Protein 1
Amino acid sequence: MFNWLSLVTGLFYIVLGVVVILYKFFIIVLEPNVAYPLGALLILYGIFRITRAVIRLKNKE
C-alpha cells in the first residue's frame, strides 16, 4: 500500500512543480527567480519518489 501511495504522491509533486513554474504561485505569488528552482525541485522530488516506489514494487515481486 505504501508503494502505491508513494506513486500517487510523486505524481502530485510533479504536477505541483509544473503549476509553480507555469503560474509562479505557491501559497503566495513568487518571483520567477524563485518559482523556477522551486518548481524544478518539486519535479525532481516527485521523480525520486516514483522511481523509489517502482524499485520497491519490483523487488517485492
Protein 2
Amino acid sequence: MRIQIQNLHKKYQRGDTELEVLRGISCEFASGSFNFILGPSGSGKSTLLYLLGVLDHPTSGKILIDDTAIDSWDEAKCNAYRRNDVGFIFQNFNLMSNLSALDNVLVPFLPRGIDQDLTQTAAQLLERVGLKDRLEHKPNHLSGGEQQRVAIARALLKQPQLILADEPTGELDSSTGRMIFNLLRELGQEQNATIIVVTHDERHVTSKDTIHRIEDGLFIDTDSEKEREK
C-alpha cells in the first residue's frame, strides 16, 4: 500500500482557541516500507497516525492511498478500509476484560465467523510474541507488556496491508521490544505490508528504515535508505 500526503493540515477548536496540530506536511510512504515517525510529545505524531487510519479527518490537504484520495470515500468505504486493510496497534491496548488473550485476538473476526484455521493462526501469532502459555489468560491476569503483545497479535491476524503502531513497545523491556520489532519486520515482508511506527524511541531503527522527523506539526527531515545511497 502506497501512501502520499499532500500539504496536510489539522486544526482543533479548544473553546475560543484554534490549535493547529499539523501545519502543511507532505511526504510519501512507499509500498512495503518500514517507516518511523520520530518526534517529541505534542509534535503531531499520533494525530497523523489517526488521519492515516481514517479515524479522523484532516482540516485541509490530501491523503492518497494507492493514488486514490480518501476524501472521496463514503463512510462504508472508510469502514471497510479500517476493517480489512489496516492493523492498529494503540498505546492503550483496547482489550476486552472478559475475554481471554486468544479471544481478544479473534474479536475483529467475530462478525465474519471464526473457524478452526483462524483460531490456530491466532494461537500461533500469540506464540510468536511469546505468549504461548497465556492463551487463556484474561487481561487482568496479564502484565502491561503482555497486554501490548496481545494487541500486536490482534492487529497482525488480519494480514493488513497497512500497520499503524503508536508507541508499540512503550510497555515492553528492551529485549521484548527487539523481538516485537523483528516480528513486525518479518510479517511485513511476508505480507508486503507498509508499516508506520510513531515513537520517540530510536533504539529499534535500522539502516533499512525510512525515518521521518516531525516537530511542531511539520516534518523537519526525512531519511531513507534510497536517499542515503545517492
